[in-house]
């Protein structure tokens, strides 16, 4: 079992090297990975106070689905779309005015601060 776990871990390390950090070559240099570090690393996004993920989109979709429900009539759907557009306009105007629209959870603020310190 230990040997098979070791093989699986070796495969995992090779996968990460090939895709994210680049394999080691001669003189301790690395090849370019398949995905550049700037593509997957969230440091620059945190440094610019941007979200690290697109989970907000999933959250919006889930909330909207709960409001609209399954198989709404065309009238209910249009009414909910118009209401959502109105709410989005209000939020956008708050952003433009510089007022705070939503606070991050303390847990995620601390994680962002730790990333910025690195």
Automatic annotation (TrEMBL):
Domain of life the protein comes from: Eukaryota
Name of the protein this chain belongs to: MULE domain-containing protein
Organism lineage: Eukaryota, Metazoa, Spiralia, Gnathifera, Rotifera
């Amino acid at each position: 079992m230990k040997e098979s776990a070791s093989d699986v871990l070796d495969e995992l390390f090779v996968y990460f090297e090939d895709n994210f950090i680049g394999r080691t070559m001669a003189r301790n240099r690395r090849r370019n990975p398949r995905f550049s570090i700037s593509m997957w690393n969230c440091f620059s996004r945190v440094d610019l106070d941007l979200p690290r993920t697109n989970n907000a989109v999933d959250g919006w979709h889930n909330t909207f689905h709960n409001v609209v429900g399954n198989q709404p009539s065309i009238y209910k759907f249009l009414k909910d779309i118009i209401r959502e557009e109105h709410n989005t306009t209000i939020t956008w105007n708050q952003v433009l005015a510089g007022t705070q629209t939503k606070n991050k959870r303390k847990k995620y603020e601390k994680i962002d601060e730790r990333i910025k310190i690195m």
